[in-house]
Design goal:
Layout: E1 3-8, H1 12-22, E2 28-34, H2 37-46, E3 51-55, H3 66-76, E4 81-86, H4 91-99, E5 104-107, H5 114-123, E6 128-129, H6 131-139, H7 155-165, H8 170-177, H9 181-195, H10 200-209, H11 222-232
Parallel strand pairs: 1-2, 1-3, 3-4, 4-5, 5-6
Length: about 230
Amino acid sequence: MIVRVAIADDHPTLLAGMEHLLSGFKWLSLVGMAISSTELVALLGKSACDVVVTDFSMPHGRYGDGLSLLRFLRRRFPATRLVVLTGIESSVVMKGILDVGAVGIVSKSDDLLHLESAIRMAHAGERYLSPLAQLILNQVEVDASSSSPLPQLSKRETEVFRLYAEGLTISEIGERVGRSNKTISAQKMAAMKKLGLQHDADIFKYALVHGLVSASQTSRKNARRAEDDAGNV
């Protein structure tokens, strides 16, 4: 039986790597690729698909990313199995991924060859975790009430929060998601208020602790961000 697979990632190099890898499996048919949630949903709407392999952080599309996107895909395409490819190394995030219905997690720190097993297992309705994903989930005991690191935020607030924590300025986020600087600033402030955060430094600490970003992603110059924020708040 041929397994129909769609792949999604906003990093062209990684997407090309997955395409090259999966094209070598005769039991698999690659039905399409996407670089955003908008493209992914459009692809699934027109092409029958058994398994989707999607990046977790892919904040450029109409349907958001992260847990909100996974929930949407589960509702809209209930027969399609979900495998998540992620560079986030947080037990909280990974538990959340499984809780919303994904059946596989492959860490970007592991060999991409694990995608073969993940897709096979997902098609069979069974769970697959790559070695690092399994290690992370085994090492840390997670409070069941904390499955999502951003449980109180809307889809757009979550998007802005993550991008800001990654080092983008207000204006850069606005350009990327197609909203005004004033709107982005308001959504950032709303997210901070809901999470009980008072300063920008608190955003970075929160994001690092909850595995939303890596330390390297928060290394943009603070002076540049401060100047941008001062002109747009």
